[in-house]
Amino acid sequence: MNTIFYTTGPIYTENIFALLGLGIILLLGWFGTRYWCSNLCPLGGLIAMVSKFSLFRFSFAVRCNECSLCEKICPTRAIDAPQNKIDKGECISCLRCLYECSHHSIAYRLRPTAQSIDLPKRYFIRTLIASAALAPLTHNFLFQRLRDRLIRPPGAIPEPDFLNVCIRCGKCMKICPTNGLQPCVFEAGMNGLWTPRLIPRIGGCEKNCNLCGQICPTGAIRKLKLEEKTYVCIGTAVIDQSRCIAWEQNKVCLICDEACPFNAISSLNETILGETLLRPFVDDRICTGCGLCETLCPIDGPAAIQIFSINQERKKTGSYITPEKAWLRVHKEYIDDLPSGFIE
């Protein structure tokens, strides 16, 4: 079968979240310099808390003339010149105050006495409790609902190992020729944030492509040869009869059959209410879940045929090619009874 070419530009479905977050951070800059770093950044809050116990710190000398120059040039507003105080939690040790002070009133010296920790300033405890409560809720209500549609790239190692090894670099998503690989939000739980998943409605997995495995720098997606990659089952196509043109509207539509590169979808005569018509059937023994059928389904909105993580194969080592699979590819048999792969 000829390769299907896509003319639309790249689409990254979760870019809106990244742009929205960036916009909010930039907007907060109107309320104060380095607003994010000083008030909201969780890493900054942790570093600020630990820095209170630093042995070496900046402090005022006795000969300060209270010109307040240091306070004006401090990028983090950590200096209170009238009170001769420097907030170590906010100080980033940029050294501007040390070099700009013409009277050498500020020194960097040993001072083992720890400052008091200002937890309310960053709402550290409140944030910690909220995060701890949100994580299980997100997992229970979102992950459990979406996991059946979590389709990983072919060659992805078992999920626990995949989440540990994947570094969220996005290279597989950028190189995917159909743009079908998209970042996860909640589909894989909080641990799976920004890991790749296949969204067949945007783009399926091309039969003659193994670029995602070749470019993966950590081995989260195995480097499979093209022939072996075609035997990897990443899911199974499921037909929704209530939306399918051939099943619901009694009209001939063979697009999913024609799109399947493995002949896993067959158009067979089926009589419904006295109307005999060619209707699609999915052979789940041959279907690899590539999703090209879902991509090209002409129905508006969700496709009438969708890929679910049924029969998904995830191996850390070993071959995906089995004698049974090889035999089925050569000797495809049609079955008389209704195949699996239907939503009644």
Automatic annotation (TrEMBL):
Gene3D superfamilies tied to this protein: 3.30.70.20
Pfam families linked to this entry: Fer4, Fer4_3, Fer4_5
For this protein, the record's SUPFAM superfamilies field holds: 4Fe-4S ferredoxins
- Write out the GO cellular component annotations: plasma membrane
UniProt keyword terms in alphabetical order: 4Fe-4S, Electron transport, Iron, Iron-sulfur, Membrane, Metal-binding, Transmembrane, Transmembrane helix, Transport
- Transmembrane ranges? 16-33, 40-60
GO MF annotations for this entry?
Answer: 4 iron, 4 sulfur cluster binding; metal ion binding
Q: Where is the 4Fe-4S ferredoxin-type domain?
A: 54-84, 156-186, 194-227, 235-271, 278-307
**InterPro entries (UniProt xref):** 4Fe4S_Fe-S-bd (IPR017896), 4Fe4S_Fe_S_CS (IPR017900), Electron_Trans/Redox (IPR051684)
* Protein name per the record: 4Fe-4S ferredoxin-type domain-containing protein
Q: Which organism is it from?
A: candidate division WOR-3 bacterium RBG_13_43_14
Query: Species lineage, top-down?
Result: Bacteria, Bacteria division WOR-3
